[in-house]
Design brief:
The longest helix is centred in the C-terminal third of the chain and has 36 residues, at 184-219. The protein has helices at residues 16-31, 35-54, 60-83, 87-113, 119-147, 160-171, 184-219; strands at residues 2-3, 116-117. The two termini are 17 Å apart. The protein has one domain: Helix Hairpins (Orthogonal Bundle), CATH 1.10.287. It has 7 helices and 2 strands. A two-stranded parallel ribbon has the order 1-2. α1 packs across α6.
């Protein structure tokens, strides 16, 4: 990859809006609670996927088909969560996680396929990083709802706020220790998330930032 300025290639993928939407989604979940907020978060997840599809190289027909499937699946998952708060909610959480996984794959593939590294590429990588954290949070919630037991040890509360907090502290390997997974399944998923977070930062994000800055450093003040 090489660094580039804004131009025709820049329109191939704009991720600044996606990054803002992701941050807004996280803040909404962090500072609000209730079933309405949870369902609104699902709608925002679907919007994130639609934005990623818009920036993908897929044909218009495939984008429409995948977008319709995502919306239909979100409606079905929401209905399952309402009719069956336990298993239905767990299934809805898995669907949310799968939507976020597909979104992250679309973004990473698009970013890697671009011939130049721009600010939009870095925005895309950061968006994918946030999506990974939100994705694992939904998987932790699914483990609790499907397992029928508390996900966290020592009776710590399991809700959207604590799952996302635990997910991002695990993804960044901060490891405060105030929340820990009680079961072997949750611990295994947490280890996978920590590994994914480290590999993501050490490879993709570092590579993009280095490629964005590298040519300027090599050319010097008078070279272009």
């Amino acid at each position: 990859m090489r660094s580039g300025r804004s131009g025709p290639a820049e329109s191939a993928g704009r991720y600044g809006l996606l990054l803002i939407l992701l941050i807004s989604t996280y803040l909404l979940s962090a500072f609000s609670a209730g079933r309405l907020v949870e369902r609104l978060s699902v709608a925002l997840f679907a919007a994130v996927l639609l934005l990623a599809l818009r920036n993908s190289p897929l044909s218009r027909r495939w984008r429409l088909l995948l977008g319709a499937a995502a919306l239909a699946g979100s409606i079905a998952a929401g209905a399952a969560a309402v009719t069956s708060p336990g298993i239905g909610t767990g299934i809805a959480e898995i669907w949310d996680g799968l939507m976020l996984l597909v979104t992250a794959v679309f973004i990473v593939r698009r970013v890697l396929a671009r011939p130049t590294v721009t600010l939009q590429s870095i925005y895309g990588a950061l968006s994918a990083y946030l999506i990974i954290g939100l994705m694992f949070a939904t998987f932790y919630a699914a483990i609790e709802h499907l397992g029928g037991t508390s996900f966290f040890a020592h009776g710590q509360p399991g809700n959207t706020q604590t799952f996302q907090y635990f997910s991002f502290t695990t993804l960044t390997t901060l490891g405060y220790g105030d929340f820990t997974a009680a079961g072997n399944g949750g611990r295994a998923v947490a280890v996978i998330e920590a590994l994914v977070g480290q590999v993501f930062l050490a490879t993709l994000v570092a590579r993009l930032v280095a490629a964005f800055r590298g040519p300027d450093e090599r050319d010097g003040p008078g070279g272009r």
